[in-house]
Amino acid sequence: MRVPMSWLRAMIDLPEGTTTTQVAEVITEHTADVERVESIGGEVSGPVVVGKVVSAEPKLQKNGKTIVWCRVDVGAELNAQGHPKNADGAELGRGIICGAHNFGVGDLVVVSLPGAVLPGGFEISARHTYGHTSDGMICAADELGIGTDHTGIIVLPDTFDGRTPVPGEDARPILGIPEDVLEIDVTPDIGYCMSIRGIAREVAQVLGLHFHDPYTEAPAQPVSGPVAVRIESPACSQFVALPVTGLDPQATTPGYIADRITRAGMRPISLAVDVTNYVMIESGQPLHSYDRQRVQGALVVRKALAGEHLRTLDDAERELDPDDLVIADDSGAIGLAGVMGGASTEMTEDSRDIILEGHTSTAPRWPAPTDVTSWARRPHGASSAASTRCAPTPRWCGRLSCSPSSAAERSGNRPSSATSPRCRRRGSPPTCRAASWACRSPARRSSRFSRPPRSR
After folding, report:
1. Which residue has the higher pLDDT, 237 or 57?
2. 196-207 and 271-283 are packed helices; what angle lies between their axes, rounded to 10 degrees?
3. Are 284 and 190 spatial neighbours (Cβ–Cβ below 8 Å)?
4. Lowest mean pLDDT among 43-52, 205-214, 378-387, 424-433
5. Are 1-39+180-213+439-456 and 48-175 equal in CATH topology?
6. pLDDT tens-digit profile of 135-170?
7. For residue 424, what pLDDT is reported?
8. What is the mean pLDDT of the chain?
């Protein structure tokens, strides 16, 4: 489990001056081993600043490659320190060659100037290339060690902390670097710690700090939504479905969401997928997105039929076991519950209407493994980040009803005209108060977190 410290600090009021090492010691002593601390962007040094693209001139080269000759404003003082060969127009900004094309005039970018050192000991200096003197480098995420994307350079938001970034200012605070990330070995008996929320509660409990819970755990109100749901197996105790319409397939994931899930060890994919992964990492509750236009009829939670097959999102054809819990529609199984979705209802670049889904599974008395974790170990080999987090205990059900709504709000899109989630509990009528039985008093909820230090 990877825990970015900024995400952890957002949930607990750590005293000023508390170091990452001190937090790691608390977690190791009372919860689980912190195996290592990684510093994201810690190798970056020297002048790495905000730049504003003043001009961008594409130039086709003899080798067929098109580069962009740019003037980038990095503030009057740094502009004046530019290379003499670029003196003509130096008042506008530094002259820089860039091979990316995902930016334009007026965009704010990250510029490493001569004297900066990037991860791997890569020193930035002015150099003559493609007929120009490139006096710095416009950076991509992987070049700064803060991500793996090299499809384009980083384009900064127009505002940061309610203000407009100024050319020449240090770009590192805007990028949130350097940042420490804890790598924690979470054992199966404390599965609730497979979330930022779970780790934050542990630290807050041990240190006697206030815990800012971003999930209310309030039961859902009676609803009558447009998504029909049936629960036909006792292995599922509750199912929530929320239709979201008007999704913009071209919309980009907000930067803070992409940064956080990247630092937590997941790759940004698309807005809908990134939002569900964000909620899963933060809360521990797995969610899944279906393309609503590809779902046929009601969503049904049931055990797999003998000989039933499912092609999962990893493009693997899997023969299901009759003990596997699946999400199905009129066409058959469309997902392996709590593990992985099916290819037939996968989100595509054209998906505009989706169904966000979350559920809880029943299980034998703790700490026996849940049905979901045992399904992930079946011969078909399906396993995922979700299968390690699927929480079966009632305490999670209240949050289940608010997680899809939270996801919709974070995505910048809107739920359909039926604004509440469609909630069903096994044996309940179609319209019900979901998970009212899951509410726990603070005293009872915290008792599991009040235990003596682990023996070493």
Report:
1. 57
2. 30
3. no
4. 424-433
5. no
6. 999 999 999 999 887 889 999 999 888 899 999 999
7. 40
8. 80
**Is 92 within 8 Å of 55 (Cβ atoms)?**
yes
Class (C level, CATH) for 48-175: mainly beta
* Rounded (5°) CA angle 237-239-240: 150
Domain residue limits, the chain: 1-39+180-213+439-456, 48-175, 229-438
CA dist 53 and 167 (Å) reads 10
Q: Architecture of domain 229-438 in CATH?
A: 3-Layer(bba) Sandwich (3.50)
Q: Of all helices (H) and strands (E), which one includes residue 68?
A: strand 66-73
Whole-angstrom Cα distance, residue 138 to residue 113? 9
pLDDT at 273 over 90: no
Nearest to residue 214, comparing CAs of 7, 76, 352, 68?
7
CB 233 within 8 A of CB 375: no
* 90 has pLDDT over 60: yes
Q: Which tens digits make up the pLDDT trace of 337-352?
A: 888 889 999 988 888 8
Q: For residue 16, what pLDDT band results from cuts at 50, 70 and 90?
A: very high
Residue 99 phi/psi, 5° resolution? -95, -10
What is the distance between the alpha carbons of residues 130 and 124, in angstroms, rounded to a whole number? 17
The topology (CATH level 3) of 1-39+180-213+439-456 is Phenylalanyl-tRNA Synthetase; Chain B, domain 1 (3.30.56)
Q: Rounded distance, CA 126 to CA 137, Å? A: 9
DSSP β-ladder status, 33-40 and 179-185: antiparallel
Amino acid residing at 59? K
Q: Contact 37/21 with Cβ under 8 angstroms? A: yes
Longest dimension (CA), the chain: 78
Cα(133)–Cα(85) distance, integer angstroms: 7
